[in-house]
């Protein structure tokens, strides 16, 4: 980390303070949360929750290594920051008590797989909703409070519908999280290029996105664009490179920082809702119920607007083309 910061030409005192803070993080998630902010304190609630998750994960790992099922269950149920919503199973339509009962009655690690999956899903949605709100307030401060990350959830092509039991066959029937991230990024590019900073009424075409990359001389990125949009692996490095190319029409000092929290959200949604791979011919595309994420966003908005550092938002609408 110190070498990376040196290459970025951070002042030595800032570099040392940041590296020391990174060393003090209890685990990878809290370290990631710190790195996401480049040394600033933009997302305090996200960082705090990441810290709690790291500590819980470490405690659960110790119980797993000791083959201590009872200790694992008691540690999970005793985590004070977990809420009733964390235990509700959306797939089974079960309330929190059903999941808690599964935990109490578990006699093997296999018995814990189903309730653990429920808790993992809700913990990630809780974490994403927290970052979503703080990201919107810090990065898109002119936008009214909006669940921004919801525009990155996978969906079917909006034109797909059934008439007399039939549906049109569309090549891009599945809109993957990374495709939706690229769509959102392209809209940000058009907005920044607009003299009056207006959002586009529709998402730019894939052809326009490719031309921006070619104009920037990034032919390798342009050649991979269609693959990324159709579900192939898209890394944080790829995202940074595309962002820099798309905003190269601005002077270096005028370019906005890349919205890495959106990349993180797209990666999480991909992990949860896109299974298998094209190469393995076992790709599974899951359409989640948006209301589950909306619920966590509502819960966290209420909590963060009443907290010690209440969030402030703007009044502009998030573009309908991205909803």
Protein architecture, described:
The chain has 323 residues and is mainly alpha-helical. Helices cover 54% and strands 2% of the residues.
SSE order and pairing:
Layout: H1 2-7, H2 12-24, H3 28-36, H4 44-65, H5 69-78, H6 96-105, H7 113-139, E1 155-156, E2 174-175, H8 177-193, H9 206-215, H10 219-229, H11 236-246, H12 260-273, E3 274-275, E4 284-285, H13 290-305
Antiparallel strand pairs: 1-2, 3-4
Helix pairs in contact: 3-4, 4-5, 4-7, 7-12, 7-13, 8-12, 9-10
Give a brief description.
This protein is an all-alpha fold. The chain is built from 13 helices and four strands.
What labels would you give this structure?
323 residues; mainly alpha; two-stranded antiparallel ribbon
Read across the widest sheet, the strand sequence of neighbours is 1-2
Span of the ends, CA to CA: 37 Å
Q: How does the major sheet shape up? A: 2 strands, antiparallel
Query: Beta-strand level of the residues, as a percent range?
Result: under 5%
Could you name the ranges where pLDDT drops below 50 across 5 or more consecutive residues? 162-169
Q: Give the structural class.
A: mainly alpha
Enumerate how many helices there are, as a single number.
13
- The chain-level mean pLDDT equals 88
């Amino acid at each position: 980390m110190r070498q990376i910061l040196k290459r970025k030409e951070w002042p030595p005192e800032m570099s040392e303070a940041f590296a020391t803070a990174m060393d003090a993080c209890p685990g990878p998630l809290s370290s990631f949360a710190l790195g996401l902010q480049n040394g600033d304190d933009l997302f305090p609630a996200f960082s705090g929750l990441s810290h709690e998750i790291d500590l819980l994960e470490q405690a659960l790992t110790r119980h797993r290594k000791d083959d201590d099922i009872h200790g694992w269950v008691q540690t999970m149920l005793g985590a004070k920051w977990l809420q009733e919503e964390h235990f509700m199973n959306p797939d089974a339509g079960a309330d929190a008590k059903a999941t808690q009962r599964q935990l109490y009655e578990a006699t093997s690690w296999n018995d814990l797989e189903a309730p653990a999956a429920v808790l993992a899903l809700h913990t990630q949605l809780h974490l994403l909703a927290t970052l979503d709100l703080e990201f919107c307030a810090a990065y898109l401060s002119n936008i009214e409070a909006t669940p921004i990350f919801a525009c990155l959830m996978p969906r079917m092509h909006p034109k797909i519908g059934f008439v007399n039991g039939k549906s049109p066959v569309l090549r891009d029937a599945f809109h993957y999280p990374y495709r939706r991230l690229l769509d959102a990024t392209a809209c940000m590019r058009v907005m920044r290029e607009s003299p009056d900073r207006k959002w586009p009424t529709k998402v730019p075409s894939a052809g326009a996105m490719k031309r921006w990359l070619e104009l920037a001389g990034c032919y390798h990125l342009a050649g991979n664009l269609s693959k990324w949009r159709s579900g192939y692996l898209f890394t944080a490095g790829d995202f940074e490179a595309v962002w820099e190319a798309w905003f190269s029409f601005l002077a270096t000092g005028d370019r906005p920082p890349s919205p890495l929290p959106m990349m993180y959200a797209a990666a999480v949604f991909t992990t949860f809702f896109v299974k298998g791979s094209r190469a393995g011919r076992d790709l599974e595309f899951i359409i989640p119920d948006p209301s589950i994420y909306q619920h966590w966003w509502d819960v966290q908005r209420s909590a963060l607007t009443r907290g010690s550092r209440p969030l402030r938002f703007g009044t502009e609408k998030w573009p309908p083309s991205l909803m």
